[in-house]
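Pasting two entries for a bug report.
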Amino acid sequence: MIAAQRFDIGSTAVYPAHGVADIIGVETKTVGGHDLSFYQLQVRGSGLKIIVPVNKANENGMRPLAGPDAIDRTFQILRDHDVPIDRQTWNRRYRNFMDKIRAGAIEGVAEVYRDLALLRSQKTLSHGEREMLRTARDLLVGELAVARETSESEVAEELDSMFKN
């Protein structure tokens, strides 16, 4: 079994479907007669505050920023345009993409972005697909900019250039 990742106040983490967040505190609450510890996260960009049970953080997909190996794998995925077009119905494709985003791995988010960007060059995306493409792009841009210590605009330009029609 993999040891649970511990996060310190002031460190940065990634929370699935929300992106890069700063750990601004740890609080203890009594729930059902038991004291439970919670990370207090503040999502960068939106300012959204989330509390995550410390003992469920890994299970919920909270993880450290992507390191160099994960970033390399992410760009390999984004450069691979020789993937079969997903012929599933839009709602099944949507559910599969949401599952990848909720899982929290940057590589899964990259697959969603790549697949929808490639699909967009073949057909008009539904409103839900366009929103998911934007979400996947925003999640990638946010994490890659922080992990690579560069601007979001540079990362966005780099991603967009990979899928020019």
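Entry 2 (this is the one that rendered wrong in the viewer):
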Amino acid sequence: MELIYIPIIILLIGLSLFLFFRQKKQHKIFMEEIERNHSETAATIQEANESHKTEYEKLESSLYQHYHDEIKRINDNFVQKLNDKDKYIETLQEFSINRGEVETHNLLQELKYELVGEGVITYNEMIIGGNLFVPIWEDGKLYTRQIDHLVLLPTGVYVIETKHWAGTVLHGVTKNNQNDETLSTLLDNMFSSYELKKEQTVVIKKMLNKNRKVDGRSQLELRLLSYGNPAAQVMRTALELRKLLLKENKKYNFVTPIVYYSYSSDEENKVINYSENQNVNVCIEKEELAAFFKNQLAEENTLFTASDLENIYRILKAKNNIDK
């Protein structure tokens, strides 16, 4: 009986060894397959990484170039705007009236910093505005009067008409307030007798006549030019502004008109003031205009608070935005 089991045991051992080595071989094949798959996966990932890296570098380069071009465009645009601004300022200064307004604005700003620095006023107690308009409605039609410069101080509201005229300016001449016979004859030829009952302003200028030459050289001649009556102009503007402000508040009853001749005096350029109009202040050159405002503040006649000044300016700005 025991002899019968021996072959069976041997067969079972042989089968077990067969299965063992077969399983071992399959395990080896399986591990080799895993290793091969791992290597292929690693290679694929490496290839993908390199591809992504290349794409990223291309995208980065493209974005860099895009933003570099955009920054250059913005910078070029900014530089162009600066150049346009410089050209605009230069253009303004090519024309005497515009240059005068620019210089007057700068003068008023400097005066404000000086007065604030000296403790005469606070920063909010001086407001400077320019190129504003007073809307006027008459018979259903809208008219405007331009304000070259508006100055708001505790002592009042000031309207400045700036004139930057070269030559000899004869301000406020009439038939009766000058005794020069030659000038009187010239005025008679420029104005009617009715016009000469009112003050006029004329400018005597030396000018080269390029159409009139002697020995090939343009000849110098004197010209007598009429520019109307700046005092009457600024007075009308002040009155219209006063009417506008009074509609808002009866307290806003003080508007002072000023004619300011800003051209520097020298041998060929000066202002002679013949005017007898006490209602319009005439200031010649920057020192006189600055002195005028300093004297106003020195009188300590306070009419408006800083809040009043802000409200007055707000009213006028609102009217400009709506009625222009």
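Dev reply: Rendering is fixed now. As a check, the viewer should reflect this: Confidence is low (pLDDT under 50) at residues 88-97.
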